[in-house]
Sequence to fold (765 residues):
Amino acid sequence: MTFSEATIQDLVKEHYGLIVTVKALNGYDELNFLLSNEKNEKYILKVSNESHSFPFLEAQINIIQHLKKSNISDCFQHFSINKEGEELTKIVRDSKTYYIRILNFLEGTFWVDEKVKTNELHHNLGSFLGKMDHALQDFSHPGMHRNYIWDISRASEAGDNLKHILNHEKRRIAGYFLLQFDTEVLPQIYRLRHAYIHNDANDYNVLVQGNRINGLIDFGDMVYTSLINNLAIACTYAMLDEKDPLAVAALIVEGYHKAYALTEQELDLLYYLIAGRLCISVTQSAYNASLDSNNEHHFITEKPAWDLLYKLIEINPIKAQDAFRRACGFEGVINDDDYSNLLDIRKKKIGRNLSIGYKDKLKIVKGALQYLYDDKGRTFVDCVNNPSHVGHCHPVVVRKMQKQIATLNTNTRYLNDAITEYADKLTATLPAKLSVCYFVNSGSEANDLAIRMSRHFTKQKDIIVLDHAYHGTSTVAMEMSPYKFDSKGGSGQMPWIHKAMNPDLYRGPYKYGDTNAGEKYAADVQRIIEDLKKEDKAPAVFICETLLGVGGQIPLPENYLKTAYEYVRAAGGVCIADEVQVGFGRIGDHFWGFELQNVVPDIIVLGKPIGNGHPLAAVIVTEEIADAFNNGLEYFNTFGGNPVSMTTGLAVLDVIQEEEMQKHALEVGNYLMNGLKGLMAKHPIISDVRGHGLFIGAEMVKDRTTMEPAVPEIDIVVEKLKANGYLLSTDGPLHNVLKIKPPMPFSKQNADEMVRLLDVALSEL
Fold:
């Protein structure tokens, strides 16, 4: 619709008998004009098209007339009457109907322009809204019953516009919060108090003078919905650009509650309602951008809204719930529980040797991408949880899992598209030779099956492993894990297990700079083969992680696997690449770790990241090995390959590829390693930084010459980082390597903060 300033001037004179000057203003979905008469009295004229029905416009008049009877009546505009004695003026142009209304001009400073916002002002904003909603308790109008995109109760619909958010990180965060809205809010909406609300106390609609709320304008968003939404919207916009947004929201909540009592149930949902409003805002901005909109009002809040969403995901929702409850005088949800009861029950009912991390125990109750939330209201950046590969509660993965588990889960004795589709997509990431999949439930089970297949194929039993290696918790996997069988309580080395030298360029005999180190370390594999030959034996298997995990986060020297594989194959053995901790793009340079070594294994085993924490793993083999294994003895796995697991695997694979996570791992990993190398130059205790992508180790020593491991110093550092919200752990044969394998959404901002905190912790040693 187009109405020029001159046209508006004529219409005002014709219908209201006023001589005015006219200036066009911005608006979201209505035309707005500033009018001034000869006495310099100001008015606002609004033009609505057919999308705002007559009953809705009538409701706007009625609600303001109702509020004029309240004790905050001076905070609302009133309508000018036209020559017919009506508040609404009907205009028909080009067969289209428009309605014009004129309101008086309220003086004051827009909230967005107020430079200093005091605690009192925030409290008074809440108080004002509480008084308004209290005054509207007995108001109703059918025109406000409408389906409206800006109604927070309908935030789920914003998911339709997620596809228009082109930035992967932003789309992931908005998707996460919409998932939480569906999980936490939707089941409760019908239980909440409902009311007729203004629905848009944003920073351009609230007027202030000093510490007083002077006005609230624009009832164009009003709707019948959950009462708490009105407060949630005010909190959302007041939190924008604030250093401590939660403290600001708590003040507004406190003011509101004193004027109009809130319920605990409403307060418990407020964090998610605020996030829901932000998601509506950013998805609408993205949608409008996809239409090439040039209306600046469509994007006015976009940047601060994103900034607040980034801050919000760092705020533990339990901390927010507790703050809002306490602001209203209710009992909080955070207590000083020392977990003694929980630890006692765990000790009695759970296996004694199931360990718990950290000196002061953590009770983690919720996850959000690279963040973990505990029951004390603390937020932690997860730097070690590589099974949650694409992030804790990744929205795409969770929703696909939810849909499938609500549809069907059964074993593989029935035909199902998901298993073949996943096998096809998974093998498409691999060399053509690796083409046949067996799906299982864990990396341990995968390694167990891979050894069974290798022994059947070669008719041999002996296994070559690396010293300090770890391949799982099944009986066979434990037998081939020196990390376990050589440790306290271990069963010792079985005669068919043979340990090759750990190809460690830092601590081993062949160091960085030795261009033939790979071949020299591989010679130890050949030594074992020669020793077996003397006993008329040959290796069934050589199994090796493609970057060494518990061995110390060690990248293999160039040509190590190439040479070792040649020796093993010449002796009739099978080469297994253990990608359980390494694969799926984590190393950045490639999708799979074995690609760093320019080799193609005979078998690869996959676990951990494959299902993003869901129990899923796989063994992928050549046609030749698969044919040999098909010897008449059925292979069946009750849960391996079930539809839910396959759907999960597909979702994880799609997310990795669609969100370009391999590229992200390379960029952020290199950035983090550069930061750690900067610390190594400053702090002699860090003696080596190594890895690829987001698979990183930092070795710590008391003395760089003697290379004495820095224990307990490294444990002190880990605890200090934990106290500051970063969860790391230690690894390596000497327990002196910082292990860094975060979920893939881990960002450069997380890397900067981690390096800064590590610098502080090392300086305090």
Q: What stands out?
A: The first strand starts at residue 21 and ends at 25. The longest helix spans residues 264-290.
